[in-house]
Amino acid sequence: MSKPAEPQALFSEFDEKSKNDWIDLAIEDLRGADFSKKLVWNTQDGISVDPFYTLQDIGDLEYLKKYHNALPVSPENSVSPRSWHYMEMISSGNEKKANAMAHEALHMGADGIVFYLPDPGNQDPALLVNELNPHVNPVIFHATFLPDHFTGSYVNLFSRIQAFPIEDISGGLNFDPLREYSLSGNLDNAGIEGLSVLIRETENMPGFRVVTVNGSHFLNSGSDTVHEIAFCLNSMVEYLDRFTEMGIPLQEIIRNLRFSLAAGTNYFMEIAKLKAFRILFTHILETYGITKVRPQDLQIHCDTSLWTKTIYDPHVNLLRNTTEAMAAVLGGTNSLTILPFDVVFSKSNGFSRRISRNISNLLKEESYFNKVVDPAAGSYYIEMLTDKLIERSLDVFKETEAEGGYVAAFEKGMIQKKIADSRDRKYALVSSRRKVVVGTNQYANPAEKVNPGEIEWADIDFTLSGKHLIPARASYQFERLRLNTDQFAAEYGEEKRPKVFLSLVGDNKVMRKARATFAHGFFGCAGFRISESSPSSSLFESVQKAIDSNSDLVVMCGSDEDYIENGADFAKAFKANQPGILVVAGNPAEVRDTLLAAGVEEFIHIKTEVIESLRQFQIKLNIIKA
User: Partners of 535 in the beta sheet?
Assistant: First the structure.
């Protein structure tokens, strides 16, 4: 009988490659171009991100290994993969209606309820939780202020529910005076005092947490990830210090802590954000002498963000919600709320709430995201992002503490300025269309019609940024432009909606199509009607088509060589017969002055500041006033 062959390592025929070897190959494919300029991504957070990482890169990140799988597991089985609660948010203006909606949500896949209390002073908690099972399905009350009587009435409610032991009640209160302070500039010291009372009155309710530290208002005001993490942790320290000064034991405060964050669409960065947050949380507590709190003990709730949502092409929000929910789940959130796709412009209905709920159901039941404890553990890319976020966020956290803590830094305007600077950088990228917002600043659907009267719209005064945070959205500036056009069409008739004609000139098929596509996207952002000519055999025919279009705007779309050869003649012939605004797609420096003299009024190109340019076109077309 022959001896069995010795086992061989897989892929042993391939030479081992170092990271530098791979970089050299990339440079070869780039034909000698600078690798760092072409492929390294420099984020707004001040972090340089390589296009790939290897085992060689994470050699110094051994400390992260002890945090692998440090995520909460399903309570039914301590060795089973992790899970999360889907918490449906319901506005409780009418208690009975809100209660009925809660029952429906729980029967259709939700695991818990977040009741948003627009006026907690006039709310009856007993009606809201009627026949709900808060020992099984967590109930969280979200309030912007805390009336004196609310504390006692809420705790007494559970004392009256004989069916459930009070210690089994799960859920909590999301009332965050520092969030309200950040959004208004007014600090509710009485509210903080009320929270201290709640901590004492719920000491026999270990599953009920009353100190929620929010971070969503940072992201939704335009913050980058580093400052979002840091300022949220600074807020936590502010509460720890204030409550301990009131005589509450530190362990009891920590037992009551929950964090509520927003998840954005920067997929890998959002996963790393939650992992970094848990690690920094335990690190900061160690400075207080608390060493027994583990990262998995931290309770994190995630909402999908408002910053990323759009009014136009709103069903794309479903895709954004899916990306954000996936990142939150893979990052290790304990609970999740997916905001309805229409939340930014209308009152959500049963359909939009059900679709949001089913995103979470799909991630569990069909995508099996709950079958692995920590799928991101050991990923070179995410490990590196996590380490970089920890380092940068800790620096900002220490800087804020050196200013005296969160409130002191806010009083000095430091926090507002850093977030406003981040927001302005984001808006600059969106405005130039280097940062794509699908369906808004790129791939807009000009045929989409919106009735401005049906949109819940409020203009934002960014001049107040120095006083408090201003929640906004990445698409806000473009939506303001397009709503101007829709309002004009609604008032004066759809036939008055500005018409843009794209005139294809010259024989360079590639360039004329590229510039026509650019112009289509450019003017589509403002809701103008757009039509495109067929290629013409002569300059005369091109001009005639432009004249016959009877358009408000005509855009020449061709190569620079075509503009040099025929651009001035086209402009003179057109302007002699048609009063429309003549625009050139491109920036032909050699003949720019000649074209302007011949009648061209504007040039649009990749370096054009899109928002201001479209605004000027709206002024010329009498859509808005200067």
Answer: none
349 φ/ψ angles, rounded to the nearest 5 degrees: -115, -175
Q: If the chain, 626 residues long, is cut into consecutive pieces of 10 residues, what is the mean pLDDT of each piece?
A: 66 82 92 91 90 88 85 55 90 89 96 89 82 88 77 64 72 94 94 91 88 97 97 98 96 95 96 96 93 87 97 95 97 95 88 96 93 88 96 97 98 96 95 93 88 83 89 95 94 94 94 95 94 88 94 96 94 94 96 96 94 96 93
Tokens for 117, please give them: 């209390």
Q: Contact at 8 Å (CB) between 468 and 416?
A: yes
The whole-model pTM stands at: 0.92
User: Measured between alpha carbons, how far is 582 from 553 in angstroms, rounded to an integer?
Assistant: 6
Under 8 Å between Cβ of 268 and 288: no
8 Å CB contact between 261 and 232: yes
Q: Which of 545, 563, 553 is nearest to 506 (CA)?
A: 563
- Reduce the DSSP state of residue 600 to 3 states and report it: coil
User: First-to-last CA distance in the chain?
Assistant: 95
d(CA 229, CA 34): 33
Look up residue 360 and give its amino acid. S
Give the integer Cα–Cα distance in Å for 25 and 31: 10
Q: DSSP characters for 273-315?
A: HHHHHHHHHHHHHHHTT--S--GGG--EEEEEPSTT--SSSTT
Question: What number of other Cβ atoms are within 10 A of residue 3's Cβ?
Answer: 5
For 231-247, b where at least 16 C-beta lie within 10 A, e where not — what string? bbbbbbbbbbebbeeee
- Angstrom distance (rounded) from CA 61 to CA 54: 12
Q: Please calculate the CA angle 133-134-140 and round it to the nearest 5 degrees.
A: 135
Q: Cα dist. 437→67, 310, 433, 450, 466 in Å? A: 35, 9, 8, 18, 27
Structure tokens at 40: 């390294």
Would you state the structure tokens that stand for residue 506, as one six-digit string?
Answer: 């010259």
Position 162 scores a pLDDT of 52
Question: What CATH class does 498-620 carry?
Answer: alpha beta
SS3 of 370-435: the string is CCCCCCCCCCHHHHHHHHHHHHHHHHHHHHHHHCCCHHHHHHCCHHHHHHHHHHHHHHHHHHCCCC
* SS3 category, 116: strand
Residue linked to tokens 């600077």? 421
CA separation for the pair 594, 521 (Å, rounded): 27
The single-letter DSSP state of residue 2 is P
- Report d(CA 384, CA 163) in Å as an integer: 49
DSSP string, 548-565: HTT-SEEEEES-HHHIII
| CB-CB contact of 261 with 277 (8 Å) | yes
Tokens of 276: 């970094």
